[in-house]
TrEMBL record:
Its main location: membrane. It is a multi-pass membrane protein. One of its GO terms (cellular component) is apical plasma membrane. This is Solute carrier family 15 member 1. It comes from Nesospiza acunhae. The gene is Slc15a1. GO terms for molecular function: oligopeptide transmembrane transporter activity; symporter activity. Interacts (via extracellular domain region) with trypsin. It catalyses: glycyl-L-glutamate(out) + 2 H(+)(out) = glycyl-L-glutamate(in) + 2 H(+)(in); L-tyrosylglycine(out) + H(+)(out) = L-tyrosylglycine(in) + H(+)(in); L-aspartyl-glycine(out) + 2 H(+)(out) = L-aspartyl-glycine(in) + 2 H(+)(in); L-methionyl-L-phenylalanyl-L-methionine(out) + H(+)(out) = L-methionyl-L-phenylalanyl-L-methionine(in) + H(+)(in). Keywords: Cell membrane, Glycoprotein, Membrane, Peptide transport, Protein transport, Symport, Transmembrane, Transmembrane helix, Transport. Pfam families: PTR2.
Length: 698
């Protein structure tokens, strides 16, 4: 088909569906941990990076299975089945109603959901990692030796399908997650958010199987990684046996393997080890890079995602693939040629060093954004403190005194104060002075917020105390709302599809989450003779509001909005600079790193370097889970600065290591070995001929 084997189109479609499945699931994973399983941010981050680390450890296993036992086709087929099962198990594990027997909206046995989720993630890691090194190589096997141009075009299509799957899934699955679904209660729709990737993985499997009769299936020919491991192991073992001084030293410790392995293989492994030595500092870059899906997503949850339309926190990850698609051709066709014209020797290792520096700067930018977020957040009561807010619902001004002589506050009619902080042990009573006086003794709890709503009525002051039960900003980005009845008779209150029940005079409802922040809702107050309605103002993201129902004029409800917690004010667009810097870092570091590695190793050792590269990604994620698990740092901006500093130190170390590296041409070294082997064969042939001639004379 157009000069291409028909089979490669099945492989490209398979890769698109698989990448959609993986990145779509991964995009919503952190929020699933924090919002559905209710894990704290550090534990959620640790489990997320454990999963990513597994995804980059299992490719080594997949490559060994494919090359030494099953072959690429069967490895892809069997592990894709495991992969699809894993996605399905994860989707089932995220069903809220699975163990919600009392239908209260919360699983009665959350351990079941956790167990299913972990089993699903382990199967996914085994599946996606196991097929990772096989699919692209299997596609390359479909071409004949004279189809080099078509093979190059295939790899371009292949990587385009990866980016397309990543970009679309990162856009779609967070939108699905943000919708509400459920049998007994409506909540964020994780079953569908994980279910769509599961369906795509099933489609990928079906497409791959349909093309099975068209594939060229190369038999397993042994895995070079096992051969390299055996050679290195033998060299170490042999060196240990001959550690005595009576044995002469050898030029390189690998030369101790020459008793069993040929010189060409030993020389090839030496070339690989020189590159792998440079890999030692690289995990720190991946420790920074892969936090896009964890820490940066959690950072976006407390930011304003209103771009004229609502962007979900986990959708901000889409900035990276968009910038990659734009920047790779720009850098290759514009930036690098410009640097070359300036006669600057911008070697691959220098590019990687600059990439690490930009990665460090990306986390400095993230820290600056986090400082702004922290400064915009409300201050909640610490240990030994209580906060009180006053709302005057009457038409007469009042003065509130906190005894013993701690503070005196004037409150205008139909107005509020902010939250005031007191030492719990010192606050004993409160006096409300208006047309009448009223004094109340206080028995308040530590680290709590309270609202005192009051108003003057003839001959008395009516008041109500409410414990707010909210001591942090809503972490799911939604806003909270509650109502206070300022009528002199009971009122049944609804807002949109939410019911708040019948409120007695001066009573307050519990907080309820607003389904869609940024929307306006119709508020309805049902009274004995008539019903009054009004449209609310648009609610912000991550705020908390109290709405006072004050009056009804010609069936129009008169209300007052009070802001208990300010909504998110730092816009998600402020994350774009850190994504830009990290994407620049990725282009310079990741793309160049693979190119450098492949240029410095023999052709038959490419898979060893790929395994080493993937291992650096896994180790980088292990670094994050260790830091998240044991770090005593309380402030998130400080953790960002820590990672930035660590990467900067590693960048300097890598620059020093790179300065001592000498670039080689593996092809020349291979050619030299080939020449020497030919000369040895010729000498052996001449020797055999002379021996035969001598034998004939005798």
């Amino acid at each position: 088909c157009f000069g291409f084997p028909l089979s490669i189109f099945f492989i490209v479609i398979n890769e698109f569906c698989e990448r959609f499945s993986y990145y779509g699931m991964k995009a919503v994973l952190t929020l699933y941990f924090t919002r559905f399983l209710h894990w704290d941010k550090n534990f959620a981050t640790a489990i997320y990076h454990t999963f990513v680390a597994l995804c980059y450890l299992t490719p080594i296993l997949g490559a060994i299975i494919a090359d030494s036992w099953l072959g690429k086709f069967k490895t892809i087929l069997y592990l894709s089945i495991v992969y699809a099962i894993g996605q399905t198990v994860l989707s089932v594990g995220s069903i809220n109603d699975l163990t919600d027997h009392n239908q209260d909206g919360s699983p009665d046995a959350i351990a079941v959901n956790i167990a299913l989720s972990m089993v699903g993630l382990i199967l996914i890691a085994l599946g996606t990692g196991g097929i990772k090194p096989c699919v692209s190589a299997f596609g390359g096997d479909q071409f004949e030796e004279d189809q080099e141009k078509q093979r190059g075009t295939f790899f371009s299509l292949f990587y385009l399908s990866i980016n397309a799957g990543s970009l679309l899934s990162t856009l779609i699955t967070p939108t699905i997650r943000a919708t509400e679904c459920g049998i007994h209660s409506k909540q964020e729709c994780y079953p569908l958010a994980f279910g769509v990737p599961a369906i795509l993985m099933a489609v990928a499997l079906v497409v791959f199987v349909i093309g099975s009769r068209m594939y060229k299936k190369v038999k397993p020919q042994g895995n070079v990684m096992l051969e390299v491991s055996k050679c290195v192991g033998f060299a170490i073992k042999n060196r240990f046996r001959h550690r005595s001084k009576k044995f002469p030293k050898r030029e390189h410790w690998l030369d101790w393997a020459s008793d069993k392995y040929d010189k060409r293989l030993i020389a090839q492994i030496k070339m690989v080890l020189r590159v792998l030595f440079l890999y030692i500092p690289l995990p720190m870059f991946w420790a920074v890079f892969d936090q896009q899906g964890s820490r940066w997503t959690l950072q976006a949850t407390v930011m304003d995602g209103d771009f004229g339309f609502q962007i979900q926190p986990d959708q901000m990850q889409i900035v990276n693939p968009i910038l990659i698609v734009i920047m790779v051709p720009v850098v290759d066709s514009l930036v690098y040629p410009l640097i070359k014209k300036c006669k600057l020797n911008f070697t691959p290792l220098k590019k990687m060093t600059v990439g690490m520096f930009l990665g460090s700067m990306a986390f400095v930018a993230a820290a600056l954004v986090q400082v702004q977020i922290d400064n915009s957040n409300p201050v909640f009561p610490a240990a030994g403190q209580t906060q009180i807010k006053l709302i005057n619902l009457g038409a007469v001004p009042a003065t509130v005194q906190f005894q013993p002589q701690l503070l005196s506050v004037d409150v205008a009619p139909n107005n509020e104060t902010g939250y005031m902080t007191f030492e719990t042990s010192k606050l004993q009573s409160i006096s409300i002075i208006s047309a009448n006086n009223k004094t109340e003794d206080l028995h308040l709890l530590d680290r709590q917020r309270y609202t005192l709503a009051f108003k003057w009525v003839p001959t008395d002051i009516s008041s109500t105390w409410v414990k707010d039960n909210v001591t942090s900003k809503p972490e799911d980005g939604k806003s909270l709302v509650r109502f206070i009845n300022n009528f002199s008779f009971p009122v049944n209150v609804t807002m949109g599809d939410m019911g708040f029940g019948v409120l007695d005079p001066l009573s307050v409802s519990n907080y309820s989450a607003i389904p869609n922040a940024g929307w306006s809702y119709t508020i309805k107050a049902s009274m004995p003779q008539y019903t009054c309605t009004v449209d609310s103002k648009e609610f912000g993201y991550g705020g908390a509001y109290t709405i006072s129902l004050d009056d009804c004029v010609e069936k129009k409800l008169i209300i007052t909005h009070f802001e208990d917690i300010a909504p998110n004010t730092i816009h998600m667009a402020w994350q774009i600079p850190q994504y830009f810097l990290l994407t620049c870092a990725e282009v310079l570091f990741s793309v160049t790193g693979l190119e450098f590695s492949y240029s410095q190793a023999p052709s038959n050792m490419k898979s060893v370097l790929q395994a080493g590269w993937l291992l650096t990604v896994a180790v980088g994620n292990i670094i994050v889970l260790i830091v998240a698990g044991v770090s005593a740092i309380q402030e998130q901006w400080a953790e960002y600065v820590l990672f930035a500093a660590l990467l900067l130190v590693v960048c300097v170390i890598f620059a020093i290591m790179a300065s001592f590296y000498t670039y080689i041409d593996p092809n020349e070294i291979e050619a030299q070995f080939s020449k020497e082997e030919k000369e040895e064969d010729k000498n052996d042939q001449d020797s055999n001929e002379k021996k035969a001639e001598t034998d004939s004379r005798l």
